[in-house]
Design a protein that fits this description.
Layout (H helix, E strand, L loop, with lengths): L4 E3 L4 H8 L7 E3 L17 E4 L7 H6 L5 E4 L9 H7 L2 E3 L6 H16 L2 H11 L17 E5 L3 H12 L3 E5 L5 H7 L2 E2 L2 H7 L2 E4 L23 E5 L8 H10 L2 E6 L25 H12 L3 E3 L8 H19 L8
Parallel strand pairs: 1-2, 1-3, 3-4, 4-5, 6-7, 6-9, 7-8, 9-10, 10-11, 11-12
Helix pairs in contact: 4-6
Length: 336
């Protein structure tokens, strides 16, 4: 008997990808999110796969009496009633990782854009042509500089590896130190205070929570090594915007590369930014401070795009296919 899968919140390109891995008898596809109202669409399916906008609560699950598995196409799975699933013997799987190297590469893109004044150089050439005076575009080498990595998770580890290729010295702060990892990747653990005091470039790779909100703030931003650069591809709220504006004005920080801003709506999944259901709400004061940042020539801001590569998005689908097929074969993987 074929165990059929219903995929919800599927874009056309995702459907094309998935159709290469499932026959028409094995899968059906729906653009809308799964809900109580349309749960009957999956009545013949033992597996459903959803993105972040489908609220797979007890009501939806109760409407799918034959359901055996929920495949979440995201890292977060708080839109699924996992307790109910465990009670009913329904397996829930997620995509634990998909963009580590992708975000790390964007991080170094921002670092290089700042270190070699790429943004200003390109703008000047477009305005005046190739024969421009280049003195104002003098940059600096990464070789020999101290890179301070805040958060040595999967993304931070990729950043550390890349830094070695540039012959940088890496220091790291993490709430949970792994001495074997430090030896393997060639970095040194230090306190956050020591990292801020010693790093030429600070890059943030921690999750956003009550412990990391305003991790860089008006109290500690003044201990940052004068003339340092800061990179944030994690979450905007990790840096207190007002403190960053002040530090840039005082020359404590001389450049910033930001893929995230503080008053973005709280985003649980980067890929949610590509959803038609995503909406953004911001605090007016911080929005104004963000506009100040946007106007500074030594600040580069990208639109929360570090995760957004073809390969990263395909890895979400690739892992989902693996999750579904492994479950059907009785060898479940990535179970939450």
């Amino acid at each position: 008997m074929i165990m059929k899968t219903a995929f919800f919140e599927v874009k056309e390109w995702e459907k094309e990808y998935l159709q290469n891995h499932f026959s028409p008898a094995e899968a059906v596809f729906f653009a809308e999110k799964l809900s109580v109202e349309n749960a009957a669409l999956a009545k013949d399916c033992r597996i459903v796969s959803v993105f972040v906008d489908s609220a797979v609560d007890a009501h939806v699950l109760a409407a799918l009496a034959d359901l055996k598995m929920v495949a979440v196409r995201a890292t977060g799975y708080d839109n699924v009633d996992v307790a109910y699933c465990k009670e009913k013997g329904i397996t829930v799987c997620n995509v634990p990782f998909y963009g580590e190297n992708t975000v790390a590469e964007h991080t170094f893109g921002l670092i290089l854009a700042l270190s070699r004044k790429m943004y200003q150089s390109v703008d000047k050439v477009k305005e005046e042509g190739f024969a421009v005076a280049i003195d104002e575009f003098r940059g600096f080498d990464l070789k020999g500089k101290v890179l301070g990595v805040v958060g040595m998770g999967h993304i931070g580890q990729h950043v550390a590896r890349m830094a070695q290729g540039f012959e940088m010295k890496v220091v790291a702060f993490d709430a949970h130190e792994d001495k074997k990892l430090a030896k393997k990747l060639g970095f040194v653990y230090v306190s956050l205070e020591e990292l801020l005091k010693s790093a030429d470039i600070i890059t943030l790779h921690v999750p956003y929570n009550e412990h990391t909100r305003h991790l860089i703030n008006s109290q500690n931003i003044h201990i940052i090594k004068k003339g340092a650069y800061i990179i944030n591809t994690a979450r905007g709220g990790i840096i207190e915007t007002a403190a960053l504006v002040e530090a840039l004005a005082e020359g404590i920080i001389v450049g910033a590369g930001l893929d995230v801003l503080e008053e973005e709506a709280f985003i649980k999944e980067e890929a949610h930014l590509l959803s038609k259901n995503y909406s953004q709400k911001s605090d007016m004061k911080t929005m104004l401070q963000n506009h100040i940042l946007m106007d500074r020539k030594n600040v580069i801001i990208t639109p929360h795009n570090a995760f957004n590569s073809t390969e990263a998005l395909e890895r979400i689908l690739e892992t989902t296919v693996e999750n579904v097929k492994s479950f059907i074969e009785g060898k479940s993987v990535n179970v939450v």
